[in-house]
């Protein structure tokens, strides 16, 4: 079985729901299974220590998850057109994996959620790709052959699946967003199978 790491940070739950949908897409591909993981919040208090296991949701990511994965889906809410600091903090700590080439040649995709339709989703997705390119990963977007990409009135971009949560973070994931998230997970897993066979 090929493990596809679906790694996300979520504060209000929307990015976590996208991660779960992407995982369903991954799991639909024979020979692949999704491994859901998250990163801890960053504290403004220097002495604060998060519990070793989150109270709910996926377990925290470990370095072994990066080594074991055959592909990576990376997700974060949009913060001023960029990824959340918790995800950036984790990625900034992957210099050892970069030196060893742990992720080189593996497929990757990105996903995000924002409060508003024009809240910086595309710049977030593009800037999330940059460290993955430095790691030597093969970036997979969402092709326009996915009909929901041209039909969606909410989230969805060729750079990766997205969701518009609304200013109160209560907007449910639309049917088009669900379709795109599962399609992105399936595409990532299919690419991982092809690359692993070479």
Topology record:
Layout: E1 2-8, H1 14-27, E2 32-38, H2 63-68, E3 71-79, E4 82-83, H3 85-92, H4 95-100, E5 107-114, H5 121-134, E6 138-139, H6 147-151, E7 162-164, H7 175-196
Parallel strand pairs: 1-2, 1-3, 3-5, 5-6, 5-7
Antiparallel strand pairs: 3-4
Helix pairs in contact: 1-7
Cofactor: FMN
Pfam family, one: FMN_red
Keywords: Flavoprotein, FMN, Oxidoreductase
Please write the string of helix (H) and strand (E) elements: EHEHEEHHEHEHEH
What is the global morphology?
Answer: globular
By DSSP, the count of extended strands is: 7
Helix content bin: 25-40%
Q: What is the arithmetic mean of pLDDT?
A: 93
Strand content: 15-25%
Q: What Rg do the Cα atoms give?
A: 16 Å
Main pleated sheet: 7 strands, mixed
Low-confidence stretches: none
- Tell me the distance between the termini: 16 Å
Helical stretch tally: 7
Q: Structural class, judged by helices and strands?
A: alpha/beta
